[in-house]
Amino acid sequence: MAWVRLSADDDDFCGIRNTAFQNGEFISFNIFYAVAGIYVNAGTASFNCNLEKLNNRPVFHITGTGTSNSKYDWIFKVRDKYESFIDTNTLQPLKFIRNVDEGGYKKHENVTFNKQANTAVTTDGVFKVPACIQDVLSAVYYARNINFDKYKAGDRIPFQMFLDNEVYSLYIRYLGKETIKTKYGKFRAIKFKPLLVKGTIFEGGEKMNVWVTDDPNHIPVRIESPIAVGSIKVDMMQYRNIRYPLTSLQSWN
Predict the structure, then answer these.
(1) In terms of Cα–Cα distance, which of 219, 226, 215 is closest to 248?
(2) Which residues make beta-bridge pairs with 137?
(3) Among the four residues 27, 73, 79, 107, which has the most C-beta atoms within 10 Å?
(4) Which domain covers residue 179, as residue numbers?
(5) Which domain of life is it from (predicted)?
(6) Per residue in 141-192, pLDDT tens?
(7) CB within 8 A of 77, min separation 6: which ones?
(8) Residue 201 contacts residue 78 (beta carbons within 8 Å)
(9) What are phi and psi of 140, to 5 degrees?
(10) What CA–CA distance (Å, rounded) separates 237 from 17?
């Protein structure tokens, strides 16, 4: 399918508005690691959304954490924390903090986005960025607000992300709708593949599959991906204070 090239004025690229999440939302996940074809519960992840102020501007303070279970730390230890401060009006990030410990690789990143100058300020300097830039965490919440009904299976929805002092041109490939059975229950879901930047855990390219609820919340309910050692399956296990009823849930487990 053709690349979907969107202008800076397109609502799905730059002027996107939040219709999916709200203050107080909490979602947690169990991470299952494949060992000899059998999945074991190897870790947890959670995402919190709180309405705060940053320099007198209202922001959604998003916090994402990921932790491997201690008994599997010998395989690949993970202690990750990501924070993004997202402008409530534009859904553009104003500040991004990353503290990761992944298999012995440790990284601290603190980024301030200057929207007037279109720059990202880090401890390493000042970097020019596009007007519509995302960070790793804000991109997740950006994606939840995409109107996937506008696209055909195979279409690519582009965005740009700042990470490790570089701007990456990435995209989400929409794959259509299907029913997915998870540890929580069976959902009507929207499926897509994000183009990933190669890192310490995930391989680069279109190898991750993501399913989000086919309702206005667009909550991720299943993620599957190869990783540096083996593969993982991530299932949503708990939620609080979501914006709409979870109408995509067809049956409980």
Answers:
(1) 215
(2) none
(3) 27
(4) 26-252
(5) Bacteria
(6) 999 999 999 999 999 999 999 999 999 999 999 999 999 999 999 999 999 9
(7) 68, 101, 102, 103, 104
(8) yes
(9) -65, -45
(10) 27
The angle formed by the CA atoms of residues 103, 64 and 208, to the nearest 5 degrees, is: 65
**1 falls within a domain:** no
Encoding tokens for residue 30? 């169990």
State how many domains the chain has: 1
In a domain, 9, yes or no: no
Contacts of 222 (CB under 8 A, 6+ apart): 180, 182, 189, 209, 210, 211, 233, 234, 235, 236
First to last CA, the chain: 36
> Are residues 76 and 103 in contact, defined by beta-carbon separation less than 8 angstroms?
yes
pTM: 0.90
Q: Spell out where 115-247 has E strands.
A: 119-122, 125-128, 156-163, 166-181, 185-194, 209-213, 220-226, 231-240
Q: What is the CATH number of the domain that holds 222?
A: 2.40.360
**Residue 110 included in any domain:** yes
16 lies in some domain? no
The Cα-based distances of 155 to 172, 193, 226 in angstroms read 8, 11, 23
153's tokens: 């299976």
